[in-house]
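Can anyone check this?
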Amino acid sequence: MRRVIRAFLAILLVAPAALRGQSASSTAKAFFQAQTDKRWQAMADFVDSASLKALRGIADRMTLTMSTLSSPEGRARMDSAGVSDMAKALEGLQAMLGGPGSMLRFTFARVTDAAELQAISDRELMGRWFEAKSAGYLAGLTTDGMLKGMLDKLPPSAGNEMRAMLDKIESTKLNWEIVGEIAEGDGVSHVVYRVAGMTPQAPTGILTFRASGRRWYIRFASPNEQLGHMATLGTAAQQRWRP
């Protein structure tokens, strides 16, 4: 009997502490509640440090691309490398969004240049990423010059329709539900979720969590893998929502 008790205690000691506490599903519910409440920094607190570093790398590569585009020497290097078409596409996108720095601001809320990007922490950068995907942020960009210029170039009816759609999305409060959880082992769990209250039911998405200490954290190589999909599911649900 003593051997059984010792073995049981050993299992408890080596098992990830997070698995003995809050589940990945419970953590996901708290994460989605922060999204519903528009608490962007609270959402960032659920992302692990390795994923935050991956997001920082994406941001750094974006600023490097912008810097290359803005210098004649850099543009010449891109032309010689055979990527002039890509450079033209990026320049066109920048012009459509409002000029240099607009791509950063479109990806990370209220970040307009490399210096500002470097001044904020990785976790704050993640919060800005979440905020930039919100309907409220995008709706604000249609009135302060960034997306406003793009909408003004559209026929009045199309521009008004786009603004009305953003207003509708912004006014719709999303609620999320957990459909299930798949434990992979080694402190990894996949949580299946969808927007609640939709008829027919909304499509599902998956968030991957990894246990660390007594908590679960979202883990990704690129935010577009999981979190970008979540933003797309939310926007699609808001567009078809019928109060």
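Reply from J.R.: I decoded it. The chain is about 60% helix and 10% strand.
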